[in-house]
Design brief:
Length: 240
């Protein structure tokens, strides 16, 4: 099943002295597929993730569709045109998990409640949330951190808690922005391997600067190409 299909989707931003344009010419994300977005710093990898997460509004969109379980189709381009923010929020809750580069944990909740929050919001049974939380915490080596608030965690620990939070409700798509950037090479390798294993039932799209790490873990690598001149920066993603 093709989970996501994008054709000729663009995001354009104009600053005081330059224009930035991200163009996704074609991108198909299949159910269960592992994809890594690679490219130089500042090329728009995180921006591409925010488009996939339905956080940033595209400036133009030819085809932008999400297939949901049971054969449903969400026309994301049309939802943006009609400004259906509430509908897109429900799609994010039900179908998308997101690991932000800084973790993005709620500062007033301990690690256990941060991890459990998406499952509770999705309406999962308390027993299922508890069991899944215990499984993920054990596999990611964070069981001893469950009672701690985010400000008592290292950056790497926050990232592992954020990974568990994104995976707990078993979404169809998980997005992750540099999920291992704050970890030493050995730990990064272990966490990326576990991430890929734990996300075996969903599509996984990560941003990474470590080409060898993602390739070693079976990711399909897509490079964002950058060119420009005369105050214009163009980034193109061709996913096929």
């Amino acid at each position: 099943m093709n989970l996501y299909e994008l054709r000729n989707v663009e995001l354009e931003r104009t600053a005081r002295d330059y224009t930035y344009r991200l163009r996704i010419e074609s991108l198909t994300i299949r159910a269960g597929e592992k994809i890594a977005l690679i490219g130089p710093s500042g090329c728009g990898k995180s921006t591409a993730l925010d488009l996939l997460a339905l956080i940033l509004r595209p400036s133009r969109a030819g085809t932008f569709r999400l297939e949901t379980p049971g054969g449903g189709t969400e026309d994301v381009a049309e939802l943006w045109r009609k400004d259906r923010q509430e509908r897109m929020a429900r799609i994010r809750l039900r179908h998308i998990g997101y690991v932000l580069q800084t973790g993005g944990l709620l500062p007033f909740l301990n690690s256990a409640d941060n991890i459990a929050a998406p499952g509770r919001a999705k309406g999962l049974a308390a027993g299922a949330v508890k069991a899944r939380l215990g499984e993920l915490a054990g596999r990611l080596g964070i069981a001893h951190l469950l009672g701690k608030l985010p400000d008592r965690l290292s950056i790497g620990e926050r990232q592992r808690v954020a990974i568990a939070r994104a995976l707990l409700p078993e979404p169809e798509l998980v997005l992750a922005d540099e999920p291992t950037a704050a970890l030493d090479p050995v730990t990064a390798g272990n966490v990326m391997r576990l991430f890929a294993e734990l996300a075996d039932r969903c599509a996984l799209v990560v941003v990474s600067h470590d080409h060898r790490l993602v390739e070693a873990n079976g990711f399909r690598c897509l490079r964002l190409d950058v060119d420009g001149g005369d105050g214009v920066i163009n980034t193109t993603l061709r996913g096929e």
